[in-house]
Amino acid sequence: MHKCASSWPRCNPPQRRAKERDVSRLVILPLLALALALPVQSEPLGAAKALPTLDQQAEQLKPYKQLLQGALQNGLNGGTLAAMAACQLMAPALQSNLTSAVIEVGRASHKPRNPANGLQPWMLEAHRDYLQGGDSAPRQIALNDGSVGYLEPIYLQQGCLQCHGAVLTGEVSDFLAANYAADRATGFAVGDYRGLFWLKTIAVKTPQQ
Ligand code: HEC
User: Fold this and answer.
1) In terms of DSSP bridges, do strands 103-108 and 139-142 run parallel, antiparallel, or are they unpaired?
2) Phi and psi dihedrals of 70, rounded to 5?
3) Of 113, 183, 188, which is best to mutate to test ligand 1, by the most ligand atoms within 8 angstroms of its C-beta?
4) CA 185 to ligand 1 center in whole angstroms
5) How far is CA 134 from CA 126, 130, 193, in A?
6) Per the database record, which ranges form the Tll0287-like domain (predicted)?
């Protein structure tokens, strides 16, 4: 800054003007870019108006389900162990990839293989109903912070038995012992309730609130 910065209208030598304009452009342009960028960044704040319907949440969960299934299927082409490894790698990765500022997705179980997949308090009531063989329809749950939860029960199928059934091969048992020391996800039979797919549509507070 030159010495007249605090009183520039009075003492702004003409020869310096062009230079100062250049400088101010350097400062203003990034600020302008920032100002233009800000409304875009804060757009999700204003987007929390309408609550999602059950069907919309079911639809939002689909990519996660399909990608998980694809990863498992792909892995199974290489045998049970390859599929185990694929599941171990891909399940947490897909979960974090599909989780954003506006939705979170995941799986939860009363008998988790991965300890990170335990039940969260907001899931417990629906979980007990599903476990007791009640209505298996998906449910929406209003959460205290204004977010909307969505739950869908998961039931065991034939193809799941090799990794979640009562009888496991030696290599599967060894893999589980080595990679999931706290595994509780075996001993299931076809048709058993296994846990939940969950999705949360996150409420974002507007600045005025
Ligand atoms: C090839 C082995 C394999 C097969 C087949 C398999 N799973 Fe899994 N499953 C796993 C592994 C490994 C995990 C832990 C993933 C992780 O670390 O997040 C897991 C985790 C899960 C979870 C998340 C909760 C938890 O226990 O951590 C659910 C729910 C689940 N499996 C259901 C199923 C169902 C239903 C099927 C059949 C459609 C199935 N699995 C088939 C290996 C398998």
Assistant:
1) unpaired
2) -60, -45
3) 113
4) 8
5) 9, 5, 11
6) 84-197
Q: Does a structural domain hold residue 20?
A: no
Q: Work out how many domains the chain is built from and give that number.
A: 1
Nearest in space to 209 (alpha carbons), one of 38, 102, 49: 49
Domain-located, residue 129: yes
Of ligand 1's listed atoms, the one at least distance from the Cα of 176 is 12
Per-residue pLDDT of 86-143, as tens digits, reads: 999 999 999 999 999 999 999 999 999 999 999 999 999 999 999 999 899 999 999 9
User: What predicted TM-score, i.e. pTM, was given to this entire model?
Assistant: 0.79
Among candidate residues 183, 185, 203, 180, the one with its CA nearest the CA of residue 195:
185
Domain boundaries, position 130: 53-201
The owner of tokens 């910065």 is 5
How many A from CA of 202 to the centre of ligand 1? 26
* Residue-wise pLDDT tens digits, 48-100: 468 999 999 999 999 999 999 999 999 999 999 999 999 999 999 999 999 99
Residue 37 belongs to some domain of the structure? no
Those residues with Cβ within 8 angstroms of residue 168's Cβ, 6 or more apart along the chain or in another chain:
162, 176, 186
Closest ligand 1 atom to residue 155 Cα is: 35
Atom of ligand 1 nearest to the CA of 92: 18
Distance between Cα 87 and ligand 1 center (Å): 7
